[in-house]
Amino acid sequence: MGRHPDGDQGVRVTDPVRLYRTVRLIRRFEERAIELVRSGHVVGGIHPYLGQEGVAAGVCAALRPGDVVAGTHRGHGHVLAKGADPARMMAELCGRATGLNRGRGGSMHAADFAVGVLGANAIVGAGGAIVTGAVWARRRRGEDLVGVSFLGDGAVNEGMLLEAFNLAALWQVPVLFVCENNGYATTMPVAGAVAGSITGRAEAFGIPASVVDGQDPEAVRAATAAAVARMRAAGGPEFLEARTYRFDAHHTFEHAVRLDYRPPEEVARGRSRDPVDIAGSRLPPDRRAEVDASVEAELDAAVAFALAGPEPDPAGALEHLYASGLTARAGGG
Ligand SMILES: Cc1ncc(C[n+]2csc(CCOP(=O)(O)OP(=O)(O)O)c2C)c(N)n1
C-alpha cells in the first residue's frame, strides 16, 4: 500500500494514523457506493461492509505486499485494505471499462492481482479453497508468502471450506482463515445455524484458532501479526474468529424491503462500538480531521473517475474468458 497521499512514506504499518485512514476510507467508500446504488450508477446493489471495517483494515495492516487475500461477497473492504486503487474499484462497481476488471467483475468479483487480491467472491466459502490452492502452488515455486481467506459465519457450514481446512492442515499451507462473525448469515442467526462452535471447526483439523474483538482494528492487527509470524515460521494454517457487527443491511435491496430479523436494541448495541471511532479516538482530533479531509478528497476524485469512464464495448463481451489465449465463440461449434 504505497498510494496514500497522507504521508504514507516512512510510516510504519502499525501507525495508528494509517490504520485509521484505512478504516475511514472503507467506511466512506461504502457510503459513497450506496449513494451510487441509489442514483442508479451501480446496478444490482451491494453488500455493505459498514461496521466490519476494522477486520479488513487490521488484518491487511499485518500483511506484506506480496501476500494474497481472497474476499467474500461483502468484499469491498478486503480489496481496499490490501491496497487496490479506490478510483478503479469504484469504476468497477459502476461497470466501467476503467474499472479494476474492465467493469466485468463488479461488486462481488473485483480482483487486483497486482496488490495480492485474488478476488471478492459470490460463492460462500469459495475463497478458502482458492487461497489455499494459490498459496500452496506459489510456495512450491519457491515464493515466500502467506494468504488470508476472509469468510463469513455462514461459510463455516460449507463443505468446500472444510475441504480447504483439511488440505491446508495436511499440506501445512500458511493460510489464515479469518471468520468475520457478524452474528447472521443473511437473516439466519448464528445460534440457529452453527452446531458446536465456529473455532471448533478449525480445531477439528488441528488448526490453531483464536478469537478477537473485530471492532478494534488494532486488536485485529496485533492478533493477525502474531498468527502470521507463527505461520511464516512453522508453515501451517491458523484460524481467527473476529467478532463484529454489520451496521447496515445484508444487501442494499433491504433498504427498499425492510426485513425484521434484528431487534432494534441489538442493532443499537452493535452500532455503539464503531471501529471508525475506536481507531479515530487514538489520534489527536486535528490529525483525525486531516485524515478525514484527505479521504474525502480521494473519494471525490474516485467517484468522478468512475462516472467519467466509458462502459465496456459490447463487441468485446466474449474476450478475456480464457487465460491461455483461446477465444470464445458465440453459439456452438
Ligand atoms: C455456496 C453459496 N450458498 C448460498 C449463497 C447465498 N448467500 C449469499 S450471501 C449468504 C449469507 C452469507 O452469510 P455469511 O457467510 O455469514 O456472510 P455475511 O453475509 O454475514 O457477511 C448466502 C447464504 C451463496 N452465495 N453461495
Task: Describe the protein.
Strand 3 (147-152), helix 6 and strand 4 (175-181) form a beta-alpha-beta unit. The longest helix is centred in the last third of the chain and has 24 residues, at 285-308. It is globular and about 50 Å long. The protein has a six-stranded parallel sheet with strand order 2-1-3-4-8-7, with helices on both faces. It is of the alpha/beta class. 41% of the residues lie in helices and 10% in strands. The protein contains eleven helices and eight strands. The model is unreliable at 1-13 (pLDDT under 50). Bound molecules: thiamine diphosphate (TPP). Residues 73-74, 122-125, 152-155, 158, 182, 184-186, 250 line the site of thiamine diphosphate.
Strand content: 5-15%
Report the structural category.
alpha/beta
What is the number of helical segments per DSSP (H or I, 4+ residues)? 11
Global mean pLDDT: 94
Largest sheet entry: 6 strands, parallel
Are there runs of 5+ residues with pLDDT below 50, and where? 1-13
What value does the Rg take, in angstroms? 19 Å
Could you give the order of strands across the largest sheet? 2-1-3-4-8-7
- The string of secondary-structure elements, in order, is HHEHHEHEHEEEHEHEHHH
Could you tell me the number of beta strands? 8
In angstroms, what separates the terminal alpha carbons?
Answer: 45 Å
